[in-house]
Amino acid sequence: MALVALVVPLALSVAPAPASARQRPGARLPRRPPSVEVYKGQIRIRARPATTAPIRGYITGAGRFPVHAVRSRGAGCKYPWYKLGPEAWACSGWLLPRRAKPTALRRLEASWRPGPFFGARTGRYQRISFYRTLPDLARGRALRLRGTIGFEVHSRILLRRRTYLVTRSGGLVDASQVTKLRRTSLVGVALRRARDLPLVIALQETPLFKIVRGRLQPSGARLARYAVRAGGRTRRVGGRAVVVLKGGVAVRRLDVALAGRPPAPPAGVGAKERWVDVDLAERLVFAMRGRTPVRVMLTSLGVRTPAGIFRVERKLVFKDMQQRHGAAPFYLEAIPYVAFFKGDFGFHGAYWHDGFGRRLSHGCPNLSLADARFVFDWLGPRLPAGFFSIRPTKLDKGGLVRVRGRYAFRPGEPRPKKRRGPAGFRRRR
């Protein structure tokens, strides 16, 4: 077994520390060191200096954090508690005191450049071998993955004349089993004023028609996929619903998403408050400032996407997600810019498909990476510098999210299979 290429250290992580580097319980420390530094991994931040206090978020190696106060060990932790900001206390053996002054902390959501991404979509009886560590690869102990699979790759190694890709988590996958995923060209539309609406966004390559004597006639021109056009007057021509664009040409109604002005915001929304409106029927996400839409984005939704009014519960720069069993399994690492608003439902970027505007989601609103980053920054709570994830507090509430309407299937979209009950059982409609 010969290792030809070395693994490149992963971004946002730090090399393992020697045992002497870890803070020792009971060690003599300065009364209040000017700064502390994360030596390894991610460290939990709590609202108060106690392990029973609410979790505020997580920090990682992003520079030296300022120390505002120190509490002696206790309250569930054998190391000292360091106050790093308002409602931000941390206690860990990997949080090391420094005599140097604090540094400017990196904003992790800004310094991270997602990709490149590799993945595969397997059939019912296909599997891809994924090794969590190099020793697992040497022993042949693999996870057998199926369904939708995706990784962020950082390096390659050559082992036994075979190339393996090293993922963000440190896992390894045979390069011949996956392909590089192309990024979508989709980017949301910035709106200068509310009267820029309505807009039409083509869900697929769409023919343009002329309206001649009450009939549709092909014009010979087509709208490219994701193309945006002004207009949006809906009418019926020859028994078919169409949308009339500027210039008098028309497109079939079911071939496009129609972005009209969203309804009035929920009660209590401030005139300048940032929030997000989701239109299930049109598969659109509107970034709102009070009553004014400032950006419209095409999304991929699912029939399980919940309708209602919510607030962001937590935000993460990226997150691994998996569902290894069931009818639609997936294993996806480093899903970027995640903002959960109801349990496991949340906005996030999708690098493994380019089917925005179609039903390619288990229920989370999927966005292009550029749009996911915009929504991540738009909705509160703001991610502090040096933080990897954040949860709302009384001082910084989660951004408001309204999901309205009802999901409507478009032509060619796969519909979920109806569950059949036992023999002789008739399911209620």
Spans where pLDDT lies below 50 across 5 or more residues:
1-20, 421-429
How many helices does DSSP assign?
3
The percentage helix is under 10%
Question: According to CATH, what is the class of the largest domain?
Answer: Mainly Beta
Radius of gyration: 25 Å
Instruction: Count structural domains.
Output: 3
**CATH architecture assignment name of the largest domain:** Beta Barrel
Main beta sheet strand tally, sense and closure: 17 strands, mixed
CATH topology of the largest domain: L,D-transpeptidase catalytic domain-like
Strand content: 35-45%
Rounded mean pLDDT score = 88
- Distance from N terminus to C terminus (CA atoms, Å) equals 61 Å
Protein structure class? mainly beta
Can you identify the CATH superfamily of the largest domain? L,D-transpeptidase catalytic domain-like
Envelope shape: globular
Would you report the number of β strands? Answer: 33
Note down, in words, how this protein is organized:
By secondary structure, this protein is mostly beta strands. It has three domains: 28-103; 106-197 and 260-408, L,D-transpeptidase catalytic domain-like (Beta Barrel), CATH 2.40.440; 198-258. Helix content is 5%, strand content 40%. It has three helices and 33 strands. The protein has helices at residues 108-111, 134-139, 369-378, and strands at 35-38, 43-46, 55-59, 64-66, 69-71, 81-85, 88-90, 95-98, 117-121, 128-131, 143-145, 148-159, 162-167, 172-174, 179-180, 189-190, 199-202, 206-212, 215-223, 228-237, 240-245, 250-252, 256-259, 274-279, 284-289, 292-298, 308-311, 314-323, 330-342, 345-349, 366-367, 387-390, 400-404. The chain has a 17-stranded mixed β-sheet that branches. The protein has a six-stranded mixed β-sheet with strand order 16-26-25-24-33-27, covered by helices on one side. It has a five-stranded antiparallel β-sheet with strand order 22-21-20-17-23, with no helix packed on it. Strand 28 (314-323) and strand 29 (330-342) form a beta hairpin. It is globular and about 85 Å long. Residues 1-20 and 421-429 have low confidence and may be disordered.
